[in-house]
Amino acid sequence: MKSSRIGRIPIPLNNVHVNAGDPFQVTGPLGVLTLTVPSVIKIKLYQTMIKVTPVFSNQRASAIQGTVRTLISNMVAGVTVGFRKVLVLNGVGFRVSIRNNILTLSLGYSHPIIYCVNRNIKLHLISPSELEVFGVDKQLVGQTSADIKRFHPIEPYKGKGIRFINETVNLKERTKKK
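The structure corresponding to this sequence follows.
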């Protein structure tokens, strides 16, 4: 059985400190991230790179090797440059404001929506209708963005709602009266 193609690629280390104990820990200029590595995976630490190898030669270990290698690569990228997602609010009167990591959204409902954000996530207002979600944990940034987007999904006829900045919206054509 071969090892995973992605799992075989070494992870370059630049400006990070790695502790290969249990749990696996990566420290960089933006923060610290930890990962519990499964027992079927062995991590080899070199001066300028990390290699992830399976202990056994079976399909399950190969699949986990690729997953763990990607998770560690995302950890290294997160503590060095971080991850960001930009959300755009489209609609008349759609606004967003931030105070003490509490997000207040005005989305055309009869009440404002209040959302408490995880302390590991930083929010920046680009404009009253654009919001940047930034953090070192890729999964947490994506989940927070998806939670905010879920408050008002894109409506397919007028395009109103919350979307990612690079997301394209295919508008439907209205039915015409005969």
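The first strand starts at residue 11 and ends at 12.
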